[in-house]
Amino acid sequence: MTTPPVGIIMGSQSDWATMREAADLLDELGIAYEARIVSAHRTPDRLWEYGKTAVDKGLQVIIAGAGGAAHLPGMMASKTRVPVIGVPVQTKALSGVDSLYSILQMPRGFPVATMAIGAPGAANAALMAAGILALQDSALATRLDEWRSALSASIPEVPTDD
Ligand code: RP5
Q1: Does pLDDT of 1 surpass 90?
Q2: pLDDT at 25 over 80
Q3: How far apart are CA 69 and CA 49, in angstroms?
Q4: Is residue 132 part of a domain?
Q5: Which residue among 57, 65, 145, 161 is least enclosed by CB atoms within 10 Å?
Q6: 48 burial class (0-12, 13-18, 19+ CB within 10 angstroms)?
Q7: How far is the CA of 100 from the centre of ligand 1 (A)?
Q8: In what residue span(s) does the PurE domain sit (predicted)?
Q9: Of the residues 9, 10, 15, 71, which should be mutated to test ligand 1's pocket, given the most ligand atoms within 8 Å of the CB?
Q10: CATH at residue 114
Q11: Is the ipTM of this complex over 0.90?
């Protein structure tokens, strides 16, 4: 079985409601992915194994979502040179600001491309992954350009009262 180019990983089943936004957008753009629960705190060995094998498996982008003390994206970035896009999942206690700060402020040397908090961030993570893959895939580049044009075309120029 060949590995898809994108890995979507998340700290918990509870993150899937958010991370599905990324999966749905990858589906829309015709990009294959795998989705896995890989927790930095609860399954550290799984995290280590996923990061250790990412390059050899052929993953090209990893989208990592987590909430709270969200160490998953940063730890994954420390374990593989595959680009990691971080999605701060919105938490109840601190509205996702905890997740955002946990993911965003990486030390020099191990970057995580950090998206917005919650569902918009997950969707943008998919679009960011698509942009990276489109550099080497002209058919995908065309699909992404069309997707962006359709979004622009859907925005009305004049506001209405309803
Ligand atoms: C993090 O803790 C997960 O990424 C999740 O966002 C948060 C809460 O997890 P659950 O208690 O819902 O499993 O590790």
Answers
A1: no
A2: yes
A3: 21
A4: yes
A5: 161
A6: middle
A7: 14
A8: 4-155
A9: 15
A10: 3.40.50.1970
A11: yes
